[in-house]
Design brief:
By secondary structure, this protein is of the alpha/beta class. It contains 8 helices and 7 strands, in the order E-H-E-H-E-H-E-H-E-H-E-H-H-H-E.
Length: about 260
């Protein structure tokens, strides 16, 4: 009996000839995302406010053999976003992929949260992600080209935790914004999906995860450990590459089962 099942074509994950933008590309998740995209064949624009951090990331990406551009961008400033996208297009070409990764958090209880704190968090995590996605979608050169946007949200956009009210609200908004943009932009062949990491070891989280409070948090993760950054490569490439060509408005969770843990 003949088996007509074709073998999976792993070339669907190949990003050769594509141009990717990673906001917040100077450290942590952003740096790891940029490395994954470059190793998959994409030319990468690293975008953030601090160019010194971008230069560090660019040095790490040098061995991939891909073109890398360091571009100053403040996602809370519409003019800065427009200028950055123009620079990316002039340097690398029209971007095919946007990873909306820039984000901040200021942990404190809601009674301590000032409106300046609230505005800073929401302006970066939600408003900034929208303005960057909008600028990406409205590029004059994009007609007929399509693209993929990956919004980096968080499991805290779904699950509650103390002392991060503004962060939770911004990430919950980003998840629903993903749905809204996916619905509107599908006819433009721009896919919009959300990646929801749980707790991962980064230069920012490692000290906390090694505290008693951090160890208690990790104990509630069914896999009993935080994630390693390389474990986000697969989900990211699925959403960014042709392998996910029929996926839009999707929420992909990578959290070691944390959302399944009992309250």
């Amino acid at each position: 009996m003949t088996n007509n099942t074709s073998n999976p074509d792993l070339r669907l994950f190949d990003l050769s000839g594509r141009v990717a933008i990673v906001t917040g590309g100077g450290s942590g998740l952003g740096r790891s995302f940029a490395m994954a995209l470059a190793q998959a064949g994409a030319d990468v624009a690293l975008c953030a406010r601090r160019r010194d951090k971008l230069a560090e990331s660019a040095r790490l990406l040098a061995d991939t053999g891909r073109r890398v551009a360091c571009v100053g961008m403040d996602v809370t400033d519409e003019a800065s976003i427009a200028s950055a996208l123009a620079e990316v297009t002039d340097t690398l070409g029209v971007p095919d992929i946007l990873v909306n990764n820039a984000g901040i958090n200021r942990p404190m209880y809601a009674t301590q949260l000032t409106m300046a704190d609230w505005d800073a968090i929401v302006d970066t995590n939600l408003r900034g992600a929208f303005m960057t996605a909008q600028a990406f979608a409205k590029q004059p050169q994009r007609a007929g080209r399509g693209g993929s946007i990956v919004n980096v949200a968080s499991i805290l956009g779904i699950r509650a935790q103390k002392s991060v009210a503004a962060y939770m609200a911004s990430k919950a908004g980003l998840i629903h914004l993903t749905h809204a943009l996916a619905l509107e932009w599908a006819r433009m062949d721009i896919r919009v999906n959300a990646l929801l990491p749980g707790y991962f070891r980064t230069d920012i989280t490692t000290d906390f995860l090694d505290t008693e409070e951090g160890r208690k948090l990790v104990a509630h993760i069914p896999m009993r450990r935080p994630g390693n950054l390389q474990e986000l490569t697969g989900p990211l490439l699925l959403l960014a590459s042709p392998a996910g060509s029929f996926m839009t408005g999707t929420v992909v969770i990578a959290d070691g089962g944390h959302l399944l843990s009992s309250l």
